[in-house]
Amino acid sequence: MTLVAAHIILALALFQLVNWIGEHATDFGYASTTLFEEPNESLALNFFIRALAPAVFMLALSATAVAAGHADLRAGIYWVAIYYYALRVIYILVMNIHRLVSWPRFVFHSGVGLAAAWLVYQILILPNRSLLPNLDTAGNELWLAIFAFLYAAANKVTVSGGPGARRRNAFIRRSYNRAELSYSALINERNSDDELQLITYAILIYEDYCRPPSMRTLERLFFWKQQRTTGIMQVASSTALSDEESVKLGAQKLSASWQRFAEENLYQRTLSTVTDYNKDSDYLHRVLEVMEILAKRAAPRFLPAYNAIMGSTGY
What is the CA radius of gyration of the chain? Predict the structure, then answer.
């Protein structure tokens, strides 16, 4: 049981490490599973990070164990790769981003990753020999594999990510359709301007993406917090809010801001209203992106409102 727990902890560490590498490799063409990933990606880079990272991680751990005189710790380390991909699936489902994932590609990467991890385990890890680099055998399979991995991580060949863009557009379209069906009466009752409705739906969709239903359920259990944000629109309150209550309060808050900044031009009024809702600069950028996708691809009725906002930038 202790060994199983250790393998799960190592899989979690690998999960965090791969996420960290991916976050810092986007400029080289790494495509993360988010609503706002770049449309171009490096096929080789994504393949090596997603499929071969577990094998490289296992090699590094095993080399350390052998060098430290604890070769027995290598036994069953293959399970780290299995738990890693299982954690990936759990994360995707819990965070409600399964519609943003290319499942055929995920299955391919996982299959290759598990096969590579098994081969590495059988051929390089299980044999009772040192896995540390040796100047006399610098061309052995282990270090050739690691050098190949590092080479792939540096390549910048990119391809169009059209399918990923279509998945993101479809994700926002479905989110809007659900929001309109469930909350249109609450939103329209308080926000009559099309521009403000566009802002409200964009914030609702983005907040729903950041805090999926599973996370919102957990947040409502944090009863010991005096002030917390809950509900689909993440409104601050001393009590846990239902999704409907958060939409009602969120729409009221946006309406008040919209009226307060009425003297500004439409573009600046939009920026001020969104910033007043959440002052993080990245938040404003993301909401504007959702507004654009909403107006141009998901809900064309908002296109005149979006064009009016963007046409009043003053530039």
Answer: 24
pLDDT band at 32 (very low <50, low <70, confident <90, very high): low
Give yes or no: residues 179 and 153 share one domain.
Answer: no
In this predicted structure, the answer to whether residue 262 has a pLDDT above a threshold of 70 is yes
pLDDT digits (tens, 9 = 90+) for 66-85: 777 777 777 888 999 999 99
Look at the chain and count its residues. Answer: 315
Instruction: Tell me, yes or no, whether 13 and 89 share the same domain.
Output: yes
Do 34 and 173 belong to one domain?
no
Instruction: Of 168, 200, 195, give the one whose Cα is nearest residue 34.
Output: 168
Cα 260 from Cα 37, distance rounded (Å):
34
d(CA 125, CA 30): 29
Distances in Å between the alpha carbon of 256 and those of 191, 196, 232, 251? Answer: 10, 11, 19, 9
Q: Are residues 121 and 195 in the same domain?
A: no
Helices first, then strands: H and E counts in the chain = 13, 4
Which among 190, 228, 227, 183 is positioned nearest to 208, based on CA atoms? 183
For residues 185-193, average pLDDT: 83
